[in-house]
Design a protein that fits this description.
This protein is mainly alpha-helical. The chain has one domain (about 5-175): Orthogonal Bundle (Arc Repressor Mutant, subunit A). The chain is built from 13 helices and six strands. It has helices spanning about 5-20, 30-35, 45, 60, 85-100, 105, 120-135, 135-145, 155, 160-170, 170-175, 180-185, 190-195, and strands spanning about 40-45, 65-70, 75-80, 195, 205, 225. The strands form two sheets. Strands 1-3-2 form a three-stranded mixed sheet. The protein has a three-stranded antiparallel sheet with strand order 5-4-6. A hairpin with a 6-residue loop joins strand 4 (about 195) and strand 5. Bound molecules: zinc ion (2 copies).
């Protein structure tokens, strides 16, 4: 298609969805985001047993991916529920949510036709959405700054490849986020980010006033607990 990917719109939608769904901890679960946004999601095992879905050869339509969006008999996301890499599934569902939130099915029905090969511009937009939903820049920045060793793929529930792409695009995405947007994304995560463990007495607490010391024994070598 002849237009450039709308990176800013895709990124802003992801930030807005995080806030609307009150996502407050990692890893972000795109299935939960779908449900709280009123988008139906069905595991493949459930639909293959339902005669209403027979016209669709869903396993073939899924092909190499772990999730697809279909419009009939209901607009919904179908995902593979057999045991596979949860990071890949998380990414695939977040990518499909990107297509939906960016209205690709409504605005570009021809390009989104399942019979055609994917349109690279629309795919890129869905990927921008996915990476900013699962690993929002402000959160990646805060954790990388304070806990570089914990800022890795598993914390965000991403595959290593997706995490590498996230790091490659960090600067580009950061330039599109205002300070207000960054604060709004971070605010619901404040409890998650303030969890501390005292290595001396084992106490777990939220260091809300950022005192840096254990309320029980006064120890000042607190550990960040991102869980
Ligand atoms: Zn796609
Ligand atoms: Zn203590």
């Amino acid at each position: 298609m002849a237009f450039v990917p709308r990176t800013d719109a895709a990124l802003h939608y992801a930030c807005a969805v995080l806030q609307d769904c009150r996502i407050s901890r990692l890893p972000v679960d795109p299935l939960e985001v779908a449900v709280s946004s009123g988008i139906s999601v069905y595991p493949l095992s459930q639909v293959t047993q339902n005669p209403a879905w027979q016209p669709w050869n869903l396993p073939a339509a899924l092909g190499m991916t772990d999730a697809i969006t279909i419009a009939y008999p209901a607009f919904c996301i179908i995902y593979r529920d057999e045991a596979r890499d949860p990071g890949r599934l998380r990414w695939a569902v977040a990518h499909e949510l990107g297509h939906l939130f960016l209205n690709h099915f409504r605005d570009f029905p021809d390009q989104m036709n399942p019979g055609l090969s994917a349109d690279s511009t629309l795919e890129e937009e869905a990927d921008v959405f996915a990476r900013n939903l699962l690993a929002p820049v402000p959160l990646v920045d805060v954790i990388r700054f304070n806990r570089p060793r914990q800022a890795k793929a598993p914390l965000f529930g991403l595959s290593r490849t997706a995490w590498m792409k996230r790091l490659d695009t960090l600067g580009e995405d950061r330039s599109l986020i205002s300070e207000e947007m960054a604060d709004a994304v971070l605010y619901p995560f404040r409890s998650f980010l303030l969890n501390r463990r005292c290595p001396k007495c084992g106490r777990l607490f939220e260091d809300r006033r950022d005192t840096g010391r254990c309320p029980q024994c006064g120890c000042e070598e607190l550990e960040w607990v991102l869980e």
